[in-house]
Design goal:
- The structure is a single chain.
- This protein is an alpha+beta fold and 303 residues long.
- Helices cover 26% and strands 28% of the residues.
- The chain contains eight helices and 13 strands.
- The strands form two sheets. It has a seven-stranded mixed β-sheet, with no helix packed on it. Strands 7-8-9-10-11-12 form a six-stranded mixed β-sheet, covered by helices on one side.
- Strand 8, helix 5 and strand 9 form a beta-alpha-beta unit.
- The protein is globular and about 75 Å long.
- It starts with a strand and ends with a helix.
């Protein structure tokens, strides 16, 4: 079932000096939403290097660092103010927090409606963290401390996170390979009235270079759109930046590692698929139990 209103989107790729290319969805004159891939929003303005961004992540609150660093003073406040009025909206990947509270790998949503939220913006915190890359598994802290490894140790966000509401659409952010776990995205469909009508993935997979990982991640997103019957908007720094409809068809895409502009119209959707119904209620346990039952049945039939 369709929901009211269509969005006209533009995606732009920019090469940053010697760094990898950067894809982002930027607002047009229609009903726009801007999406920037994680940790790259400041670097996209050629004001901070990626190394400086990661240094800020571990040393102090990232947003506060932007406010007090020469050349970027007031950057975050100005960014929020630019979306505090009118019909524009933005999703920006950025680490949030402090040493005292801990950090999260987050997506900040900026709009006039979100300006009244705590902190002045919508916030999604990544739930499914990468071991050693984003958190230190239980029992390994002593080893990491002994080796003095500068590893990330993010706090985990909620499983059933609220959506970012824009123009009647409920946009469900997910970060990097979170879209690999369909049952976790399906958890957001427990209440159909709050379920996402559109998904938005922001990814930084530059670590994999020009490898099969780019195509693989795109195929993963396509499967999620089929399972849940929701379009997916993907904004990445090296690829694949693309728009996928609810049938799993890539309707628009930018070539990886290239400059470019991508324009598309996206329609949000409502309703629940059978997968969304049982996965939101039970996760993958029914599938696992069914598989065990099949194995047991074949085992009992052997002479």
């Amino acid at each position: 079932m369709f929901t009211p209103g269509k969005w006209r989107l533009i995606a732009r790729t920019a090469v940053l000096k010697s760094e990898s290319s950067h894809n982002r969805l930027v607002p047009s004159t229609g009903l726009p939403i801007l999406i920037c891939s994680e940790v790259q929003v400041a670097a996209a303005e050629n004001t901070i290097s990626t190394a400086a961004v990661y240094r800020a992540r571990f040393e102090k609150g990232f947003v506060r660092w932007l406010w007090h660093t020469p050349g970027t003073a007031g950057y975050w406040e100005a960014l929020r103010a630019s979306f505090a009025e009118g019909g524009r909206a933005a999703l920006v990947g950025v680490p949030l927090g402090s040493f005292a509270e801990g950090y999260t790998n987050s997506v900040a949503g900026l709009s006039a409606a979100a300006a009244s939220a705590p902190g002045g913006f919508y916030r999604y915190d990544k739930h499914h963290l990468v071991p050693f890359g984003e958190f230190i598994p239980f029992g390994f802290r002593w080893f990491v401390d002994m080796m003095r490894m500068p590893l990330g140790d993010f706090n985990r966000g909620p499983l059933n996170a609220p959506s970012f509401v824009v123009k009647g659409e409920r946009v469900g952010p997910n970060v990097c390979y979170e879209d690999l776990f369909g049952e976790e995205l399906a958890a957001r469909f427990a209440d159909p009235a709050r379920a996402p009508t559109i998904f938005a993935n922001v990814s930084n997979i530059a670590w994999f270079g020009d490898s099969v990982a780019i195509d693989q991640h795109l195929q993963i997103s396509r499967l999620r759109t089929l399972e849940l019957q929701r379009p997916m908007l993907r904004a990445t720094n090296t690829g694949a930046t693309a728009v996928i409809d609810h049938r799993g068809v890539v309707t628009h895409a930018l070539a990886p590692h290239t400059r470019g502009v991508l324009e598309a119209t996206v329609q949000g959707r409502e309703g629940l698929t059978p997968y969304a119904r049982w996965a939101s209620a039970f996760g993958l346990w029914p599938l696992g139990l069914a598989a065990l039952a099949v194995v047991a049945a074949f085992g009992l039939r052997r002479p």
